[in-house]
Amino acid sequence: MNMKPVQIGLFVVALVIAAYALLSGDMLEKEKAAERTPLSIGTNIWPGYEPLYLARELGYYDNKGIHLVEFASATQVVHAFRNRVILAAALTLDEVLLLKDYGLDPKLILVFDISEGADVIMAKKEITSMAALKGKRIGVENTALGAFVLMRALQLNGLNISDITIVSLPVNEHDSAFDAGKVDALITFEPVRSRLLSKGYHEIFTSKDMPGEVVDVLVVNKEALISHETQIDSLLQGWFDAVRYFEVRPDKAARVMAGRQKISVDEVLDSFNGLHIPDISDNMKMMGRPDALLLGTAERMAEVMLESKLLKNKLDLESMIVPDPLKRAENPKQ
After folding, report:
1. Residue ranges per domain, the chain?
2. What does each C-alpha distance from 309 to 191, 239, 303, 304 come to in angstroms?
3. What GO CC annotations are associated with the protein (predicted)?
């Protein structure tokens, strides 16, 4: 028996409704599954990231779906983010630009810290200046930051890459590089800096000499901005709570950090002297629209990296910075 036009119409409408319900149910299930998946954040060892681990130790991340993953080097963090092993990463700004250059679309949601002396070039006693590096061996980790600091240090001191011999050194060999006779100078950072200072080596260049250029930030996978919004909010809230705890109880906080970094409490406190950790207000000044200060910094850095052939492409950075999670952290739901 043939169906009447009205019946056919109702049948089609029913099919559409059923299909929509099925699709909506599938999308809802995917969203719920994403919410059940922890927000994994990768870091390497660096004082500026320690408030994350302090927040964990203080219980701020208990039952919040947040998983901190510590890697041996920044290179491993970059690889993990590229391969989607982690959904978020603590990186230097230049490393984020490299991810953009690779064709990824990381979203920058927080400034952890600005290095004001914590990144350094350490040297033997007899090497008293950058000029004295001519013909010498300089150790550097095979990372974007290592390459960037090296290029800027050379540029600012009128040197060329041909004036030195580069020795590639993973960060776990930085402590022993001088004693093993591998290098005459070394690009490194805290906590290695403090340990080398205690052995009698000294600084000939620091991030103070390139103000505002070494910035550590938090980036997240684009999809995670939506699928893990709740965890991102908890992460930022815990971060700022831990930073405030450190400001009010520095000695107690430093004892926790010292155990993780394997340095003394005094060395922990000293390592933060070379860092500026912006609060929510400072973060909003750097990342808020329309005149995001960090965007200007990133654009200038991209130009330097392109000129130095650290980047292959001219980058469009307009959509990289996403201040929405910070705005929610500034005005949390009650």
Report:
1. 37-115+217-330, 119-206
2. 29, 35, 10, 9
3. periplasmic space
Model confidence over 151-166: pLDDT tens digits? 999 999 999 999 999 9
E strand or H helix that includes residue 139: strand 137-140
DSSP 260: H
Neighbour-count burial for 38-72, b at 16+ CB within 10 Å, e otherwise: bbbbbbbbbbbbbbbbbbbbbebbeebbbbbbbbe
For the structural domain made of 119-206, what CATH number should be given? Answer: 3.40.190.10
Q: Which residues contact 154 (CB under 8 A, 6 or more apart)?
A: 130, 160, 161, 163, 164
**SS3 category, 90:** strand
Distance between CA atoms of residues 157 and 129, nearest Å: 10
Distance CA 288, CA 147 (A): 29
Put simply, whether the predicted model's pTM sits higher than 0.85 gets the answer: no
Average the pLDDT over 311-334 and give the result: 90
Measured distance CA(184)–CA(164) in Å, rounded: 10
Nearest to 294 by CA among 208, 212, 206, 211: 212
Residue type for position 93: L
Segment 111-159, tens digit of pLDDT:
999 999 989 999 999 999 999 999 999 999 887 788 889 999 999 999 9
In the 8-state DSSP scheme, what is residue 113? E
Q: Order of strands across the sheet with 165-168?
A: 165-168, 137-140, 185-189, 119-123, 202-206
Judged against a pLDDT cut of 90, whether residue 291 lies above it is answered with: no
103 token code pair: 């064709």
Class in CATH terms, 37-115+217-330: alpha beta
Instruction: Give the whole-angstrom CA distance, residue 193 versus residue 214.
Output: 16
